[in-house]
Amino acid sequence: MRFHYSKWRLDSKTDEQRLEELMSLFSYLLVKSDGDVDEAIEWLKQLAEEHGIFDEDMTLADLIEELKKRGIIEEIEDMHALTDKGVQRMRLDALREIFSSLKKGPEGSHETPHTGSGIERLSETKKYRFGDQPTNIDLTSTLRNAMKRDGIDDFSIKEDDLEVYETEHMSSCATILMLDISHSMVLYGEDRITPAKQVALAMSELIRQRFPKDYLALVVFGDEAKLVSLSELPFLSVGPYHTNTRAGLQMARSLLRRCGNVNKQIFMVTDGKPSAMFESSGRLYKNPFGLDPKIVNKTLDEAVQCRREKITISTFMIARDPYLVNFVEEMTKANRGRAYYSSLNKLGEFVFVDYLRNRKKKFTG
Predict the structure, then answer these.
(1) Taking Cα atoms as reference points, which of 237, 243, 238 lies closest to residue 225?
(2) Among 8, 62, 91, 262, which one is least packed by beta carbons within 10 Å?
(3) 132-140 — which CB contacts under 8 Å span 24+ positions?
């Protein structure tokens, strides 16, 4: 029996690594297809024909079978559907994709540099002081102190013997992610909604994994604003809508008003200027041409109200339209918030860097 070995190369990958890459590609195509599994499979077929991403060791049929075996997709009446586990896989892949682009630096965690009456226990201990939580007492160190003082024969514990674990002061965040789903997000053949959805998926997974007590909600805005469940995120698509930024800010502010968290913030991802608003009568007023003073002024009023309620707005612009830039500059001044210009492939980096920094704020008074 003869064995044939291919030449090993530095970029050679194991079967498991190749499978993981293909599954990550499939996750991306699912985001792009708004969660339509069969459409994502069709795109895989096209990629296979054009770029030869499969071979005899791993065919498209093998990948589909593996996705079923892992519970990521299921077959219902000759159609494929995404499972809850599949949605979770999309979030994980988006999180890996976003963080793989982040540069190394001194700031990598959400913790504040302060120790105090927090909830995260550290390995270091300190002498007990009035007000420290009894549940943080280090029993081993306390007993050792007592035995050093009096020995085992005359054992007793006094207040001076007590040692407690240091705890880390953790800030919490209430975050509203606002996604623009107006028609311009796919206008002129440029896909801007897919990377925006990837950011939302990644952020939701980050908070689920590491900061489960943080509040995160998703608000989409077109002609009107809607609160959308995070589980619906993979299936979102744009529509023939205008951009009602004011309605999005109103809903976000209303949601944050109910939160007791100290840090409150809005991340708004948009590629267009505000072009619609509801009048007091309930009628949708629209003007897609230029910057309409009526729409702009009402939207800026919302930004000012957010500032009064200590809600910071971070705007991530994925376009360089002069009208958009002018409006965002005015809104940033009114809210005293932040504004970022971003190419599509850097969108995630900007969002997450700012999110991590904002959680580190410590408010007093």
Answers:
(1) 243
(2) 8
(3) 132/164, 133/164, 133/167, 136/164, 136/165, 136/167, 137/162, 137/163, 137/164, 137/165, 138/163, 138/164, 138/165
- Highest-confidence range of 140-154, 248-262, 347-361, by mean pLDDT? 248-262
Q: What is the domain class of 173-359 according to CATH?
A: alpha beta
In a 13 Å sphere around the CA of 332, the CA atoms on its Cβ side amount to 16
91, 205 in Cβ contact below 8 A? Answer: yes
Q: Model confidence over 64-108: pLDDT tens digits?
A: 999 999 999 999 988 999 999 999 999 999 988 877 766 544 434
> Which amino acid, residue 320?
R
Alpha helices for 113-220 (secondary structure H): 139-150, 193-210
The predicted structure's pLDDT at residue 365: 37
Alpha-carbon distance of 315 to 332, in angstroms, equals 8
* Rounded Cα–Cα distance for residues 283 and 303 (Å): 22
The residue extents of the domains of the chain are 15-82, 115-168, 173-359
**CB-based contact 331:313 (threshold 8 Å):** yes
Q: How far is CA 1 from the centre of its chain?
A: 54
Nearest to 250 by CA among 183, 298, 199: 298
Question: Residue 265: how many CB atoms within 10 A of its CB?
Answer: 25
How far apart are the two ends of the chain, measured CA to CA in Å? 79
In this prediction, residue 14 carries a pLDDT of 79
Q: Which two tokens stand for residue 77?
A: 């009446």
